[in-house]
């Protein structure tokens, strides 16, 4: 399997990559130096994009779109694409940080509540000795503060910018500002800072391996129920696409 293969799922181009291939692509993007947008896509966001053309356009304009949720992997396989595994935002974050410590890449962390990014940064630098985190800023900023934040990021000269503003807000923010930021790799990581900082607990390993992380999160956060209703609707749309390909 080549690392540039893509799957077309409900109008979105998703890269057929595993973790190793995603990391190799990130290395190439950092070496190239041109601002590049990475999206870790789940079924909920892709379903939103069915009624949001701007969001679908942002997804298709990204330089790398990984199959974050099991829904995307299921859809890809249902449509005949050879997906091997989920490439989740938080696991990709950890993998990037491990590699960054070896490659001397600099990382800037933007998003989450006040002090969360700093706490997450401390956890990451302890976990990966030699990791260079060159700056942090929370996600609770007004629109008129954006220019100042962009200047701070530019002065810090990171190789990678993690943006934890929640999806799809973070995707639109990256798309709008990536050229001004001049950071080689910009990636939305949702609520990953909260997990890294120890504020939220991730599902046990056996739950993750059983592809039931979505259910664990729903039990822990019942308020997610309304959002999770997108999953059966997503399933129906994928089955419709599969039926059309048979015609």
Automatic annotation (TrEMBL):
Q: Does the keyword Cytoplasm apply?
A: no
Q: Name one GO biological process term.
A: cell wall organization
Top-level enzyme category: transferase
Query: Keyword Lipid biosynthesis on this protein?
Result: no
The coiled-coil segments of this chain are: none
Q: For this protein, what is the EC number?
A: 2.4.1.187
Pathway assigned to this chain's UniProt record: Cell wall biogenesis; teichoic acid biosynthesis
Q: Which reaction does it catalyse?
A: UDP-N-acetyl-alpha-D-mannosamine + N-acetyl-alpha-D-glucosaminyl-di-trans,octa-cis-undecaprenyl diphosphate = N-acetyl-beta-D-mannosaminyl-(1->4)-N-acetyl-alpha-D-glucosaminyl di-trans,octa-cis-undecaprenyl diphosphate + UDP + H(+)
Q: Name one GO molecular function term.
A: N-acetylglucosaminyldiphosphoundecaprenol N-acetyl-beta-D-mannosaminyltransferase activity
Keyword set, alphabetical order: Cell wall biogenesis/degradation, Glycosyltransferase, Teichoic acid biosynthesis, Transferase
Function per UniProt? Catalyzes the conversion of GlcNAc-PP-undecaprenol into ManNAc-GlcNAc-PP-undecaprenol, the first committed lipid intermediate in the de novo synthesis of teichoic acid.
Q: Which family does it belong to?
A: Belongs to the glycosyltransferase 26 family. TagA/TarA subfamily.
By what name is this protein known? N-acetylglucosaminyldiphosphoundecaprenol N-acetyl-beta-D-mannosaminyltransferase
The species this protein was found in: Syntrophomonas zehnderi OL-4
What does UniProt list as this organism's lineage? Bacteria, Bacillati, Bacillota, Clostridia, Eubacteriales
């Amino acid at each position: 399997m080549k690392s540039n293969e893509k799957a077309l799922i409900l109008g979105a181009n998703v890269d057929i990559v595993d973790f190793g291939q995603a990391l190799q692509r990130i290395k190439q993007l950092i070496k190239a130096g041109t601002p590049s947008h990475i999206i870790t896509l789940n079924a909920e966001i892709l379903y939103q994009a069915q009624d949001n053309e701007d969001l679908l356009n942002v997804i298709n304009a990204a330089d790398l779109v990984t199959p974050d949720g099991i829904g995307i992997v299921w859809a890809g396989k249902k449509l005949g694409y050879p997906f091997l595994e989920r490439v989740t935002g938080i696991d990709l974050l950890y993998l990037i940080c491990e590699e960054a410590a070896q490659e001397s890449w600099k990382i800037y962390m933007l998003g989450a509540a006040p002090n969360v990014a700093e706490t997450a940064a401390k956890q990451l630098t302890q976990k990966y000795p030699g990791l260079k985190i060159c700056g942090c800023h929370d996600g609770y900023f007004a629109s008129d503060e954006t220019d100042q934040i962009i200047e701070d990021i530019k002065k810090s000269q990171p190789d990678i910018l993690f943006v934890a503003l929640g999806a799809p807000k973070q995707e639109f923010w990256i798309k709008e500002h990536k050229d001004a930021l001049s950071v080689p790799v910009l990636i939305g990581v949702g609520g990953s800072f909260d997990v890294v900082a120890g504020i939220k607990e991730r599902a046990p390993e056996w739950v993750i391996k059983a592809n039931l992380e979505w259910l664990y999160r729903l039990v822990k956060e019942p308020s997610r129920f309304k959002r999770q209703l997108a999953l059966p609707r997503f399933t129906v749309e994928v089955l419709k696409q599969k039926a059309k390909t048979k015609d």
